[in-house]
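Data deposition worksheet. Section B asks for the primary sequence of the deposited chain exactly as it was used as input, without tags or linkers unless they were present during the calculation. Section C holds the resulting structure in token form. Section D is free text for depositor observations; keep each observation to a single sentence. Incomplete worksheets are returned to the depositor.
Section A, Depositor: J.P.
Section B:
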Amino acid sequence: MMLIQMLVALTLYFFIPLLASAEDIEVTLYADANYPPYSFTEAGELKGIYANIIKRAVSRMKGYKVTLVGVPWKRGLRLIESGKGFAIYPPYFHVEKRPYIWPYSLPILDERVMVICREDIFFRMMRLNWVEDYYGLVIGVNSGFHLGGDAFWQAAEEDKITVSEAKGNRENLLQLGLKRIDCYLNDRISILWELKKLKLSGEYDEGGKHARLIEGVTVSIEQGFLGFTNRDEGRFAYKEDFKKQFDIIIYDMRRSGEMQKIINDFLR
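Section C:
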């Protein structure tokens, strides 16, 4: 009995230092390379609000060396679906549409779709209700986007609202500033980020050549996550621990206001 105890003690003596000195596990997180201002590559560097948040979070995790790699979104999803990729950000929570993504992290960001309108549009009424309070207006949208909800597009079919399509944020904001449309519908942070760039470049002269703009109602909210593969067949044995650590840090960042500060600093 004593011999067995000695063997166990010797085993622990030699094994524990090996665990303590083990190198961090190298982990690759894939990111959408073309989703500004949330996640994008510029001059070969991965940037964006998600990148800033996730870099901060993984720097506090124990036992992992994390690399963020930007890829085309469809390619990234294929890596997750095949089980070759460990995790990707920022998918929305679409379990039925993407059954190969599971589990999801805690929500990282709330992506809020809103309307931004010329100041004069609110002179006669507050326009608090989407969609009824926006009847009779010309609403700009990005070509190929289908934001706004079924009631919005039904109102457009019934000629209660006029939809004007333009290439992107820049084009729609300039159209709005020149009073060629009444409001613009898109993600709030994307709008504010592009508007800041236009003002800094002198292309948008608010209060001069261009109209003053006011935020209207929130139309919908989507949340972005870190989504993990469930097709790895046990290859990523550390998945549960990684997710647990990541979730705790993300929760603390949201609760403390640190995450909102990162967003504000990016937009400043």
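Section D:
DSSP finds eight helices and 13 strands in the chain.
The chain has a mean pLDDT of 90.
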